[in-house]
Amino acid sequence: MNKLFTDNLPWKITSLVLAFILWLFVINTQNPIQPQEIAGVNVVITGLDELESSGYKLKNEDEIRNQNFKVVVTGPRLEIDKLVKNPKLITATLNIADYMGNLTESSLSDNANYAVKINLDSYTISVTDKKPQVTKVLIDKIDQKLQKVTYEMSKDLTDTYTLIGDGVPVITPDKVTITGPKSDIDRVSEAKVLIEAKDFSEEKLVAQLPIKLYDAEGVEITSLSLSTDTAEVKLPIGSEKEVTIKVNYTGTLKEGLVLINTIVSPEKVKLIGKSELLAGIKEIELEPIDLSKVEKTDLIQVAMKLPDGVMTLIDNKVNVSLEVMEEESLEYPIQTNEMDLTVIGLGENLTYEILTLNIQVVLSALPNKLLGYTKEDIKFSLDLTGYGTGEYQLPLTIIPPADVRVVGEPINIDVRIKQLETGEATPTPSHDNSGTAGEGNSNSTTEE
Fold first, then answer.
1. What mean pLDDT, rounded, does the chain reach?
2. How many Å apart are CA 264 and CA 271, to the nearest integer?
3. Disulfide-capable partner of 429 in 120, 193, 246, 434 (CB 3.0 to 4.6 Å)?
């Protein structure tokens, strides 16, 4: 047996090498031409942007892209093997621009003409047959439709929970805009959300649920787009309580503006939630209104600050009417010897004299307020704390009536402070505008 392998061993090895070389020669120089069917060809669609800009849509776009496109090619076996291993080297292109000139008012159905290209350097492979799964081009006019959003409650929901009130959920938005091929839009019978027990609890009363489109037979339509894919669904589970709404402010109005009235609509709101949560709620606050951004009477929407686990069956925002009026200013000329003046802080054995004869006080308020006041309603205060004898220019504090404010530059007056001589009468001033220590409100001279 061993002789079979060992006898003439050199010749046997030489024979094997020659056989291998002959095989390589046949394979590489005598490469046979053969046909081959190849599946999984890459499909490309061009011209879709131009089509949609003209108001049309390729209705069966997804079917065309995802089809199992086959071709039969003919060429050298070695080149064919490359395509078999990688079918994506072959591209079938559908150019929609070829159909633009045949568009009618509503739709078009025509044969699909694919151009097949082989992305190899070799020029010896030819396409002998194309076998698309999708043989038609379906083009439809793009249309829109406003559809009311309905709902369907699953049996497990109604078995699990007792709904309060009329038991009707609040769905936002209550309408959606549907966009897509007109023939598909015409099939739409309803836009609906399915409400199931798994999406809600007594702690979770609000959920975002998908909106789905159905035809008259209840078959879902997936080829259309919606203005929103989901809806907020509020489900009335638990207890109910009515409370007032409280307005909050932040910031201040610009100078010269006055907020004279605030009206909230509605003034009260019904809350829904677990009874133990509602028991501690006396009112619902609104998000703060920034008065620095209010410039005129306006109607705005402000969100309620709802605790977790609590909801309302109305929109979360309420209307707030802010009534704003602009102030008017009025100038009051006042003689200093006629001021209703309170002096504080005058030292012992000192007397004072106001040297300034006249001042101008400007007050600002709502017109009806200003008309009700005169200069006699304005009070003044002068602080002489820490001042000894001499002449000073000191700030005069103006105390306006309620709901009135002082505008303009601060007012300073000239004041002379003198020593009050013991046993000597105070000199009579040039005008009745002086006082001594111990007087709270004085415009006349006295003796100590």
1. 87
2. 17
3. 434
